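Loading example: each entry is read as two labelled lines plus one structure line.
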Amino acid sequence: MTLDPEAPLTPKVPLTPKERMALKRVAMPEQDATARSANFGEVNLGLTEQLAILEAERCLQCPKPYCIDGCPVRVNIPQFIRFLRDGDIKSAAQSLLSDNALPCVTGRVCPQEIQCEKVCLRAKTGQSVAIGHLERFVADWGQRHAAEIAGSPAVRTGKTVAIVGSGPAGLTAAGELAKLGHEVTVFEAFHAAGGVLIYGIPEFRLPKDIVAAEVDRLIAQGVTIEANAIIGTTYTLPELREKFDAVFIAVGAGLPVFMNVPGENLKGVYSANEYLTRVNLMGAWTEGADTPVLHGQRVVVVGGGNVAMDAVRTARRLGAASATIVYRRGREELPARAEEVHHAEQEGVEFEYLAAPTEVLGDESRWVTSVRCVRMALGEPDESGRRRPEPIEGSEFDIPCDMLVVAIGTRSNPLLTQTAPDLEVTKWGYIVTDESGMTSMPGVFAGGDIVRGAATVILAMGDGKRAAAAIDAYLRGELPALPSAEPAAVA
Amino acid sequence: MHRVLANEQLSPNVYRLVVQAPRIAEIRRPGQFVIVHLGPGAERIPLTIADVDAAAGTISLVIQGIGKSTLDLVELVPGDVIDGIAGPLGRPTELPEHGHAVCVGGGVGTAVILPIAQALHARGVAVTSIIGGRSREWVILEDELKACGEVVTCTDDGSYGRPGFVTTALADELARGGVDEVFAVGPVPMMRAVVGLTGPAEVKTTVSLNPIMVDGTGMCGGCRVTVDGIVRYACVEGPEFDGLRVDFNELADRQSTYRPFEKAALEHREACKIGLRTGAPVDAPPVGAGAGARP
């Protein structure tokens, strides 16, 4: 067996376990860092078929696969990898799609390193199987061959389900419920479906035509998307409950959190939501788009999560000579995916660790000119288990900037809940559900960030999948035992 | 999809579009607005719902064609379609039960005043509308407001009605006494001048603000305004606020964020129209109208 990815594939000869273990993990081909920091083309270019099959050979096909437990939507990972290894990509794609409604998305944005790949047996003695890369390869093949792999239409149940929000939780639930034969209508406040997948995650990480194709596949399955419909204003939740046999609320945690420091309303200060929505959903990165966005030359982004990385890398691509992350903890504590941090570093993003803004400063015409920060030191661990940052007195310093993006989190939007007095919410406005995902309103389920608080695409998708199963059970007059709410193996 | 049924010119640059939007026509309340998205690539434009015909399932949008995106809208003709209209958005006007209200409309802000005046009149509140424009041709919606009560029309150049600004007429009205509440909508300097009069007179004053917005549902935070020292989102907590507490300087300042883009967009649009594509500077940022489009 050759290890050279460029060499032609050898005829299928089963590898010995020793040969299998000798295979090194393939690397994801990437766009050159200097080139890509000036364009919006995808950073990861995807594996070739040859590389993918080579990587599939690395999977040990464990009899008790931990990787499935590590996956919030419980993809049968060994199965699709086995089909791929055997060269049957069509079966691999069908297998993957039967478990995961949005595999082109998760193959790109999942934090595999803390999920399936973390618990992969091969990670114990070396590098895990590149499950995420393989998922993406198979999913993309499936998207290119959509007609070939389309399943037969489900038998209609005559039951109707309204889904509020077309982000990852809503789309996943829509796909699952449509497969089961229910008539699904997805209500979306924006003019296009996808939620955070289209307004938040940038083109260079998740191309919008990929998301559109995933949505089109759902529409082909019979899902109706009603855009520009805001539940809480256009229709109230009680109205929806009356018109549909069940409702799934997946509106996300959409309100931006600001720092609450002086100067935050100066011109040139954005929430990450606004900045990314202008660039991604409204297409402000393309020439000739009607929606404007500021092109900062010296940009500071406050925060250390994936959203902060998306914003700072976007700023670089829009021409920022300097783009700096300001984060109150250290590199080890960054909540962003390792790959995003690594890519940001490659693209020339600077990192100012252990610093927290105390004030935004501006000029006489009220444009931002700099951000004043205080140096932080890490103290004892807090309730999140991370060491608590504490300001060092008298350590203030200024970072000059002409644009500042605040990416320190989001919170719940009261627009929907305020028109539904029967819906129980926490004091932070998140919706309370039982273990099946049902809210205090019978037949109304909820999942994703509006239940758990700001989290990841894949956790929202897991919620959507579980809620779909519960809704199906509810519509059939039963609520069976459900898989546990959290994947057991995820730390 | 929303079909345009009528487009009527009200002033040199203000137009009234009557558009199919049955659900919004059915449920909207005075003071609320919509976000209009003409089609792929277009901006999302917040516009007040100036009037509705619930039976016909239509809403009226009064639009000042000043930027690229608003010009695209006012040039629509009957039969054209608008891809998306989201709403109704914002809190409805808090209407008094009785008494005497003065409604002050400056320029296209008059279109925001109209549904308020109509609602006040419908519940028996005495309405005096004070509206104005640079000259006679800039005065809009006078007849519609006359159906709600007395109308004082002012023109800066004295070509029609009372010469001078709406604030001068308001000062007289306040001096006469008996004004329980003032609603004022127009350019920031006008609203600032209004509260300059109503503040000392201790008359409750409601203003409707038009900051920059993207989504209109609270998710972008672009529309943040400072009211009584607290940051508010105009899209979900407004657009109407206690005028005596609004930081108008900040509002006007934030509205100016995209002014250079607006100018470039307009030049580009003109260049395209007359077939001179050279007008588009290659290194110019993507452009659009953005700020202050909502009357």
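The first strand of chain A starts at residue 160 and ends at 164.
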